[in-house]
Amino acid sequence: MNIAIASGKGGTGKTTVSTNLAALFAESQKVVLSDLDVEEPNSGLFIRAELVHEENKFKMIPKWEKDNCSLCGICQDVCNYHAVIQLGTKIMVFPELCHSCYACSELCPQEALPMLPKKMGVLRHFNQDNLSFIESRLDVGEEQAVPLIAQTIQYVKDNFSDNIIKIYDAPPGTSCPVIEATKDADFVILVTEPTPFGLHDLKLAVETMKELKIDFSVIINRYGIGNDDVLEYCNTEDIPVLAKIPNDRRIAELYSSGSLIYDQHSEVRKQLESIKDYILQINQSSIR
Amino acid sequence: MKEIVIISGKGGTGKTSITASFAVLGGNNIVVADCDVDAADMHLLMQPDFAQSEDFYSGELAVIDQDKCTQCGDCANVCRFGAIPVIDGQYIVDALSCEGCGYCARICPTEAITNIDLNVGKWYVSTVKTGSVMVHAKLGVGADNSGKLVAKVKNEAKQIATDTKKDYIIVDGSPGIGCPVVSSISGANFVVLVTEPSVSGLHDLRRVYQLVKKFKIKAGCIINKSDINNEVSKEIENFLEKEDIVHISSLPYDETFTEAMTEGKTIVEYDKSKLYNSIVESWEKVQLLANK
């Protein structure tokens, strides 16, 4: 069972929901939490667990072998990303533009562009009792998050059985990294806040989920601030609102110091319990 | 003409609210560029008139002509993105997985595959409520935010600012450290980092500043919601000092920001009290720093 926690707008509480929900599940059963916000991974700041595995992650980039090259120019012609450029008698490769499609490498008649791995980030695996936590961080200067997100999901798939609850903390927005992080999810929870920014970006996220044809529901965070427009929108659109996490300065304070909240705030706990019940329910019906 | 870019690493720190406040204070002397094209929000505070709009094309998508396809499967074999599954006996391109590399089209023996240009969104040139010009965009759902649309918005704003002899371009950047952020900050004269004193705020600030450093751009920082955690606030101040980042100001945790937003206003239009003064002072400092 794969549950992605996403949001259009950043800073609405994705990480708070992901980490606290995972911790709540871990009280009674095995759960996997995976941070897919590889550009700015934050879940790890809230999870105290033991590092059990670490591996560098690579993307494949062509490397020019000068001695084999006949300067035919095919590599430059076939690269749709302008990542391979012929300059006089030299072939230049721009790794940050390369999408690892292999076209230049495999279509080169001289085999002068073999694909070699280039490090783009690190994946770490932590364990604490029932909780397994997987985090990937993109190296600063690497521009493409998608390949690292894909490899992180693959790692989770390879290492954990299907029936374990898996929670994915997705990146913000609605563009390619979010699609990669949510497209294989069984269920998506969109975290929003009851403000005009929250509503505007929620609508974009809803459109995205509809496009992906994934079941989703909404959590309203900082409930009580702003206005009722988000709630009304969800009612009109028939989108289930799973929980309303109250607007409370104390929650912001606990969060700011890196604390989990699920065992320190009774109302938050109650709201998280109802999310958990909902997830267990869909998990049951999906098994049937 | 100076280009000032506001970024935050972490989302939800108040970046857009502060950017829009600067834009209002800058009056008619600025051009605004909303480069947070994936979930763009600034228009909700600036009320642009969407006077001019244009489609934006970036990247390609493979399309298979089923009449020409002989089901040889070569395309699926070379596709590194798993984007050509067989559905009901036909090779079909999955638009969400296709990266538009064009490899399949090149090797198809019957030339059954063509690449079409992808419409990834729209960009606009508007007049906003202060009378100044704003360039902004709307990225299509699930589109590739490669930074090209960001670059388009910024370059257009630059052109307009040059043509109309404005002093500043104010750019609302995107969260994260990936392609759109790189596009937002490249070429800037000054970067304003908006952060909050939480462990995540500091963590993301450190990462995004590493990126700013690579570009050798001067930076200043606004610590928003500074009283939510005095300890982390102090830690951020130490970090700023160590990295030689100007500490522009610290703003208190104040729900007036949200109240103003709910009425579609920036904080400087809504509240003339203490917060107003702090933001006016911040904007004055930013102008001085950008001109240094």
At a glance:
By secondary structure, chain A is an alpha/beta fold. Chain A has helices spanning 14-26, 74-78, 103-107, 146-159, 176-182, 196-212, 229-237, 249-256, 266-287; strands spanning 2-6, 31-35, 50-62, 84-87, 90-93, 115-128, 131-138, 165-169, 187-192, 216-223, 241-246.
Q: Overall 3D geometry of chain B? A: elongated
Q: How far apart lie the N and C ends of chain B? A: 13 Å
Query: Which term fits the overall shape of chain A?
Result: elongated
User: Uncertain regions of chain A: pLDDT < 50 for 5+ in a row?
Assistant: none
Distance between the termini of chain A: 13 Å
- Stated plainly, the CATH topology of the largest domain in chain A is called Rossmann fold
Using only C-alpha atoms, the radius of gyration of chain B works out to: 22 Å
Largest sheet of chain A: 9 strands, mixed
The CATH class of the largest domain in chain B is Alpha Beta
- Give the second-level CATH assignment, the architecture of the largest domain in chain B: 3-Layer(aba) Sandwich
> Judging by the overall fold, what is the CATH architecture of the largest domain in chain A?
3-Layer(aba) Sandwich
* Biggest interface: A-B, 58 and 61 residues
CATH superfamily assignment of the largest domain in chain A?
P-loop containing nucleotide triphosphate hydrolases
Percent in strands of chain A:
25-35%
Estimated structural class of chain B: alpha/beta
What does the largest sheet of chain B look like?
Answer: 9 strands, mixed
The overall average pLDDT of chain A, rounded, is 96
CATH superfamily of the largest domain in chain B: P-loop containing nucleotide triphosphate hydrolases
Number of strands of chain B: 11
CATH class of the largest domain in chain A: Alpha Beta
Explain how this protein is built:
- The complex is a heterodimer of chains A (288) and B (292).
- Chain A is an alpha/beta fold and 288 residues long.
- Chain A has 2 domains: 224 residues, Rossmann fold (3-Layer(aba) Sandwich), CATH 3.40.50; 50 residues, Alpha-Beta Plaits.
- A 9-stranded mixed beta sheet of chain A has the order 3-6-7-2-8-1-9-10-11, sandwiched between helices. Chain A has a two-stranded antiparallel sheet with strand order 4-5.
- With 292 residues, chain B is of the alpha/beta class.
- Chain B has a 9-stranded mixed beta sheet, with helices on both faces.
- The model of chain B has no long low-confidence stretch (mean pLDDT 95).
- Classes of the chains: A alpha/beta (288), B alpha/beta (292).
